[in-house]
Amino acid sequence: MLTLAERSAPYRPAGPLGRGPLNALSRMDPPERTKIFVAIIVVVTIVAAFAMLPNTEEKAQVLLSQGRVAEAVALYEAKRETTRLNPFEAYSLAGLYQTQGETGMLTRLLEEEVAIRPQSDWARPMLVDIYRAHGSYGNEARILAQLFAQSPTEGTYRRLIGLYRLDGDRTGERVTIELGRANGLASEHDLARLERLKSTLAMDESAQWRSSDLAGPRFAQETLR
Fold first, then answer.
1. Per the record, which residues fall in region Disordered (predicted)?
2. Which CATH number fits domain 54-118: 1.10.287, 2.60.40, 3.40.1350, 1.25.40?
C-alpha cells in the first residue's frame, strides 16, 4: 500500500533508464523538462534552417549577423577552393579580409577578381590603394593603366605619368600620353615630351638592332670555335 505522501509525489518512472540523460530528465519536474525540450527544438530548428539555406552568400550573412566572422570567412574560403565565388561573395570576402588586416589574402583575391571579371568596378581601386600604400609603384601603374583605359580621367592620367617616370618606363609613359592626347587630357608640355620619347625610343631600338646585328656573326664564330 502507498502512503499518502507517496501518492501525492510527482510521477517519476522507474525502470532500466540507468544513469544516462533520460534518467536525469525523468527526475526533473515537468516545467524543467519542458524548458529543456524547447531549447533542444530551437537548436535543432536553427541548425536545420541554416542547412536549408540555398547558397553560401545567405549562410555567411547569417553567421555575420551573429558576429561569427571567422566562420563566415571559412565558409567563403571553402567554396573558393572548389568553385568560383560570385561577385557579391568575392566583394564580401574582400571586405572581411580588409577589416581583419589580411593584406596578402586580400591582394590575391583582388588580383583573381580582376583576372576573372575584367569589368569589375570595385576590385581595381582597392588594389591601387594597397599597392600605393606599400610603395609598389610598378603594380600600381599596372592596375591604374587598366582603370585609365576604362575611364580616362585627369587625376589618373597625371598619376600614371608620374609613376612611369618614377619607374623609368618610357614606353608606358609614351602610351599614356598618346591615350591622354586622344582623350583631350594632354597638355602642350606633354605633347613635347611625347615627341622626345618617340625619338629616344626610336634611337634605342635602332641601337639595339645594330648591336644585335654586330654581335650575331661574332657569336656564331665563337660558337664554332
1. 1-25
2. 1.25.40
